[in-house]
């Protein structure tokens, strides 16, 4: 079993995608909240609120770095390890990914650079606009990736010509319900993540009695509000996808006939089903916890409990961890449910993998999964460290005056 | 239609070579130009804003290759699996160094990530040399030509980094410490002269190996690079090295396109339309962002910032 290159390629993709998504969820959710905070700070010209944006923005940028690193590997491992998919469906699944890189990631990274280096150097409205582009392109990026992913689940808008899939209907590809519902679910559930991270970090500081210029009192309220707003839409967009899991795609039967499809599906592994259902259960359980806790937090708001109730302040920092776990669980469920197919009813996972020797597949797995685990560990540690440290000394904290280090102490009398 | 897609891809790769050549080359050169902890910090501070704007060109090129040229992707990327794994590993290690270096104020932490930046930069440049050799050699790595091609590509990256460092490592007005900038400036001439020796030898090796399809256009591009290096190697010092090293770097993807033995892959028209329609509205935004970013970081690197 362990000398099967397919196993290593799948494990590598699953683990790297799981780690990648965890950071992506944080990026998406925090971007929306930071944009609102910065808008509010710039509108009021409030230095205290801008200091808070620097704090949350510092966490955002540290997290974004890991998102980019893992995204690079995601993009290239599709080319390296999944050549069978590219050979047959390259024109269709890779076109949205091409759009993602050019139209979304390109702008996101460039404007994030401008935002990082534009503090104190740029007109504040232009600086806000830079983060507006960063937020917009982050969602755009998620959309195009999900167009590609949605096609795997529900292949539409293509024709097989000479064994190669050719895109015939770009509109059908982009409006694939499997992609649109997944995007709705990702957009709302990451807002839930962003809200819970903001509320959790704020509650931690409030519990310790640290609240410089009211930033964490505002943070806990904004976080609870965002998470509560996103709670029900998350479940709605997620639940609406369940019927799609079991209906055969409309294009079923155009590559393989019904008997072949049945034979391939019957050979599916039982372990995969168990893992998929575990992912689903984790997701549903975590959502239920939020469904019980968030109304309590909303109730605590007018009673000033968010600022005073210790048990609530202990509970809140745990919630973002649960939310990230649920995100991974959701992906495990979605992706494993598609097995044994890579493109449902058209291409099996065994056909999609590059023909690699077991040694190379293992090398790739050890190299990239190992680097991912180390980098994710370091980034997670840095995030917790900066979140606990608070606004002073964060990654985006204002630089000390240029001559503070070289200045000779002046004794004034 | 196919020509549009090819020009787009070569354009993205040329943009990557010119822009990323700066920060990758300076990363390779940093053990030479930065001897003290303060100098090493400034090197990262100088390179870091660039890499955010430059590596997106390669990400976009990979995306366009996958979306519009799935055959090339299968043939080149999966066909040269170990080379691209080396490239990806170097890229990952280098970016990790740049992202993480400034996050903890400890000498050992800085040493680890500075090493990662240097090793990653070298791995990326050497991997590109190998990829170019494989493309020109039609999939195989020719015995004589490969090491010379790798050396020539590494020299061009170093030259680009030195030219960049000679300008960007100049201290901010009123500060001392121009040693790094001067070392980089001196290096431009040495590197250009070394390139002048290596390039003709590489061309001769390509001819001797026989397996390399040199072709007239490929030779013309190589001659243009040699001419560019000759200008830089002269007595005027690093003055012309920014534009000349840029021209030399930009010619690498052109060389790969005209001399590479890659079967002409037809971009599927509908996929091309989807990519064109979906990206066209963003192009002005991209142009504004890139110009704005590079104008903002054109000045000498500040003493401290997010990355260092």
Automatic annotation (TrEMBL), chain A:
UniProt-annotated location(s): Cell membrane
Cellular component annotations (GO), alphabetically ordered: cytochrome complex; plasma membrane
Membrane topology value: Multi-pass membrane protein
Top-level lineage group: Bacteria
Transmembrane domains' residue ranges: 20-43, 55-74, 94-118, 125-147, 179-204, 224-244, 281-302, 314-333, 360-384
GO molecular function, one term: electron transfer activity
Keywords attached to this entry: Cell membrane, Electron transport, Heme, Iron, Membrane, Metal-binding, Transmembrane, Transmembrane helix, Transport
Claim: Electron transport is one of the keywords in the record: yes
InterPro entries: Cyt-d_ubiquinol_oxidase_su_1
BP GO terms, sorted: aerobic electron transport chain
PANTHER family according to UniProt: CYTOCHROME BD MENAQUINOL OXIDASE SUBUNIT I-RELATED, CYTOCHROME D UBIQUINOL OXIDASE
Family in the record: Belongs to the cytochrome ubiquinol oxidase subunit 1 family.
Name the UniProt record assigns to this protein: Cytochrome bd ubiquinol oxidase subunit I
Organism: Thermobifida cellulosilytica TB100
TrEMBL record, chain B:
Keyword Transmembrane helix on entry: yes
GO molecular-function terms, A-Z: electron transfer activity; oxidoreductase activity, acting on diphenols and related substances as donors, oxygen as acceptor
Membrane-crossing residue ranges in chain numbering: 6-29, 50-69, 81-100, 112-135, 141-159, 190-208, 214-235, 247-266, 272-294
Pfam family, any one: Cyt_bd_oxida_II
Main location, first listed in the record: membrane
Keywords tagged on the record: Cell membrane, Membrane, Transmembrane, Transmembrane helix
InterPro entries linked: Cyt-d_oxidase_su2 (IPR003317)
Keyword Transmembrane helix (UniProt): yes
Location(s) in or outside the cell: Cell membrane
Domain of life: Bacteria
CC annotations in GO: cytochrome complex; plasma membrane
GO BP term (any one): aerobic electron transport chain
Membrane topology designation: Multi-pass membrane protein
Family: Belongs to the cytochrome ubiquinol oxidase subunit 2 family.
The protein's name in its UniProt record: Cytochrome BD oxidase subunit II
Organism whose genome encodes this protein: Thermobifida cellulosilytica TB100
